[in-house]
Amino acid sequence: MVDLPPPLPPIAVALLTCDRPGYTARTALSFRRHNPDGCWQLLHADDGSTADGMPGLVGALGFETVVAHKTRQGYGPTLRDLAAAARDRVGPDGLVLVLENDFYSLRPLPLDVVAAVFARPEIGVLRLWHNWKSKRHGLRDRSARRIPWQPWQLAGERLELDTPAKRVRWSTNPIVVRAELLASITAAAASEREAMRVARKLDHLTARVVENVTTHIGTRSTPAGVYGNPRRDKKTRKTKPAKCAGSAPIHSHAPVLRKLCEQLRPASVLEWGPGASTAAIREAAPHARILTIEHDGGYYKKARAQFAHCDRVEVKHLAIGTKGRSQGYITYPYRRLLRQKATGGEGERYDLIFVDGRHRVDCLTLASLLLAPDGVVALHDAKRRRYERGLAVFPEVRQLGGGVAIAGANLDRFSF
């Protein structure tokens, strides 16, 4: 007699957001790319985001906003409200995948493993990460020093299980957790630390994967020149340009853009980072409408003066805040699309999107939601390794000259 696999309980994916629309898009899009279809319900809770259009952003990827705080309430109350909503949707015997908006999915959720793990009633939590962040940043799992994790093989997956003597009982997300357990813990805790104290009194075990399903987007110490953290000269204390591996010579991308526009013939163009690229696009596609976004006030004034006589070029200044935080700079085109749809329009999508500004991975993610069906995204300095995740959201990527890569579908139609 063949043993049938255990049935999979209903699953609610609970996404928590609070600003950081670029991270939110990367979190939701990477999850949906690896898990396009499934037996889950996609739920979203927002904790007082100041960025406009957060429900529309996650809604475009299939998430339903069930909790929306107008003012910041904190992680604990937001998770409590979302946990209650998730339990109502999947029932007390269902499962909840807790996913905060700064985690990147590396592979599909192993549903057969999830079913097998939660077929054991003593297990309450499945942790979807082994190392909190990439080993490249030197951050490893500290709990291995104090918790004797036991090797465990289940449904073809290498797992580890804590022991009854030193139970983890609770874990930082992303996790899959029993819906009733999550609701009971969050109802009695106002913060994640309190949730750990409450969980210590409960009787369940925690399992974890050995190969990460998710990884944290951020880093322990943001490298200079990345995510808005500028390099500064140690003597003058003035900001200096970042020297990054994979950088292309200045303006080497202009000839490539001209040739791309001659073949693509775009009617609408979106650009992060105006300058020589704007002039090249306008020269090759004089009838195209161009929206270009700049974060620096000085460069914005130069670009506005340069294209003041061009009625088909709109230069937009959207500053980046402290610590590289950026809301409108990344999401302005998408919020504009949502406003156009709200007034009965179709919402403008772009035949060509050129990314050559700040927060390029986040901009690439948003670009995938703004691209016309036959459109193309072009990225400058595309050989920098940190941009690989941004390009990974597209079905095809092709490296060209001048440090430019194009992404989209049916790229064989272009000859260079």
Summarize the structure.
This protein has helices at 21-34, 54-59, 75-90, 111-118, 179-187, 192-199, 254-264, 276-284, 297-306, 328-342, 360-370, 388-391; strands at residues 11-17, 40-47, 64-69, 95-100, 103-105, 123-127, 150-154, 157-161, 175-178, 205-209, 214-216, 231-232, 239-240, 268-272, 289-294, 313-317, 350-355, 371-380, 396-399, 404-408. The chain is an alpha/beta fold.
What does this molecule look like?
The chain has helices spanning 21-34, 54-59, 75-90, 111-118, 179-187, 192-199, 254-264, 276-284, 297-306, 328-342, 360-370, 388-391; strands at residues 11-17, 40-47, 64-69, 95-100, 103-105, 123-127, 150-154, 157-161, 175-178, 205-209, 214-216, 231-232, 239-240, 268-272, 289-294, 313-317, 350-355, 371-380, 396-399, 404-408. The chain folds into 2 domains: 11-216, Spore Coat Polysaccharide Biosynthesis Protein SpsA, Chain A; 254-413, Vaccinia Virus protein VP39 (Rossmann fold, 3-Layer(aba) Sandwich). By secondary structure, the chain is an alpha/beta fold. It has 12 helices and 20 strands. 43% of the residues are buried.
